[in-house]
TrEMBL record, chains A, B:
It holds the Pfam family polyprenyl_synt. Keywords: Magnesium, Metal-binding. The keyword GTP-binding does not apply. This is Polyprenyl synthetase family protein. One of its GO terms (molecular function) is metal ion binding. SUPFAM superfamilies: Terpenoid synthases. It comes from marine metagenome. The keyword Ribonucleoprotein does not apply. InterPro entries: Isoprenoid_synthase_dom_sf, Polyprenyl_synt, Polyprenyl_synt_CS. Signal peptide: none annotated. One of its GO terms (biological process) is isoprenoid biosynthetic process. CDD domains: Trans_IPPS_HT (cd00685).
Length: 347, 347
């Protein structure tokens, strides 16, 4: 199979090992009903073009299902048991992407037009909602010999989903507002990005270890991974290379997103920087030279250094957490490779 | 309590009896989290104004939860057990309304601006999604002494939700298309409207009777109630009185909706009518005199008589079904009153 040809060379083992099994399970979950709606979902997943003709486009990293399956397996669990939850998590992630793209008017993802951009808002909205129901449906395929596992996992995913949506609301509410501090930002990303990532690790640990203290530790690890992931995303959205990220340089600045680099610069001691960013962000549209000026201010306030430092702090923390939770030496090394990837990734 | 003051005088007992208990349970489900998002949900439910200040606005008929609780109770079940599912069904219905209004660009519901009309599409989209998660959450509050009941009910609601969304997709796909026949229309409404109504009666029967053949019969009754309900809605959307429906006269014609009256007229023997409607529906915008002309054609093809006849046929069918399914004489009479209301309602 040629899955993920664009990404594989750089992906750590944890993110590549389960790609084939996940792809099969996801294709099974997005069943072949006869209405075109399901072709829209397959397009979203990178499996077909806008006419429903199969192809292999660039895919997401699949970090949520991989984390779920890896955690389960590394704790001695059966990944078959965790697969329905892993599929559910990936579908919920895609549901959120489809709706997010509508909300943010994002026209491109992974170098391809977004769903609303191809089919309009009404159909894209419906496609997102179907993705969400298919996620629920996948959960119902969990082994029925342990109904408590199903209800516990469903409850965790449901709560994560609620937090994620609340986070999206906070994010929208913040847009254009100039007074957001680091604390509010951290709360927002812990909801918008962190909740689902956290639940991936948490559910994997519950299925792998049958709950208890180990699962709680993994929940905490998941929280930290969520922060790492989003802050790194902010770095890439500001300084990332177009060819790697699939987004234009400074794309978050053009969209006047309140990312951590911007919030850090605003909270800097230098009053003029604060005012200048507020002024630039209150403009109708942001031009190339405005982007350059914002990047200069971010340089002057060492915003990149600050953000990358936070990512590395979380990485160090997680690396410590992982020492005493029953992983084999091999699993620890694999997890460490993943953590290093999250610190250094360019896409 | 002054709930439903606009509606109560005309509502049959089945739709008024559970209003207070439902209102309390719904208010409990839409908990008081601190972000404004939840005020949007309360506005949607008719409990508060756009600033979050409590008021009593016109509410929906609550037909889904009422059907669920009534069926359960009339079969000898405990409505306390069915309440979480009833709440879930009403929240899913409201989730679908919020997203439907975005898709159809509807500006008014129950004489008040719709959510996207007040807060914009991004926030309304999120509000709909939260409503959906709260629906799931409500299901989790079902009595845990019977985990099979929870998983059976969840599965039914989930499948109904999927069908409903597929129906929304069909509806959007049909818009502007001229070649939709009665068969396609019936399939679309059985998904879009029928699935959730069907599941309301079905789940009520399962909880009230512990499943079996009775529940299957109620599932079929639910299918027929769904057709009755939507065809009557089409009649009201075409000929309804603004003061009763809260929508402008001929509102479905102005929106070029492929309602049953229109499809019936198109399938009439008279070629000129077919062409004229196709021509009117392909115009950029529909003016008052166009609406009048469509109404004339609907008169000439006896569309109203045809649609009302179908509603009455289903009503007769359901009235027969209800004779031998273990209802008391009193429950049969109450159900019959509901059926008559669905045939004759003006809102």
């Amino acid at each position: 199979m040629s899955d993920g040809v664009h990404l594989k060379p750089e992906l750590p083992l944890v993110l590549s090992r389960y790609r084939d099994v996940m792809d099969l399970a996801l294709k099974d979950a997005i069943s072949d009903r006869s209405i075109f709606l399901y072709d829209m979902l397959r397009y979203c997943m990178g499996w077909s073009d806008t006419n429903g003709v199969p192809l292999e486009a660039e895919k997401g990293k699949g970090i949520r299902p991989s984390l779920c399956l890896f955690t389960c397996e590394a704790l001695g669990g059966d990944i078959g048991k965790a697969l329905p939850a892993a599929v559910s998590l990936e579908l919920i992630h895609n549901f959120s992407l489809i709706h997010d793209e509508i909300q943010d008017s994002d026209e491109i993802r992974h170098h391809r037009p977004t769903l609303w951009n191809v089919w309009g808002i009404p159909k894209a909205l419906v496609a997102g909602n179907v993705m969400r129901v298919l996620a629920d449906r996948s959960m119902f395929t969990m082994p029925s010999d342990d109904p408590k596992l199903l209800s516990a996992s469903s409850l965790i995913v449901s709560e994560a989903c609620l937090e994620m949506i609340e986070g999206q609301y906070m994010d929208i509410s913040f847009e254009g507002g100039n007074s957001i501090g680091v604390d509010q930002y951290m709360k927002m990303i812990s909801h918008k990005t962190g909740a689902l990532l956290r639940s991936s690790v948490h559910i994997g640990a519950i299925i792998g270890s049958r709950g208890g203290r180990v699962a709680d530790t993994f929940r905490e690890i998941g929280v930290k991974l969520g922060f790492m992931f989003q802050i790194k995303d902010d770095i890439l959205g500001t300084w990332g290379d177009t060819a790697s990220t699939g987004k234009p340089v400074g794309s978050d600045i053009r969209r006047k997103k309140n990312t951590l680099p911007i919030i850090h610069a605003r909270e800097s001691q230098t009053q003029t920087y604060q005012e200048e960013i507020s002024e630039l962000y209150s403009m109708e549209s942001i031009q190339d030279h405005h982007v350059d000026r914002v990047l200069d201010i971010l340089d002057a306030t060492e915003a990149r250094h600050y953000c990358q430092g936070l990512v590395e702090d979380y990485a160090l923390d997680v690396s410590k957490d992982i020492q005493n939770i029953g992983f084999s030496k091999n699993s620890r090394e694999e997890f460490q490779e993943l953590v290093s990837f999250l610190v250094d990734r360019s896409f």
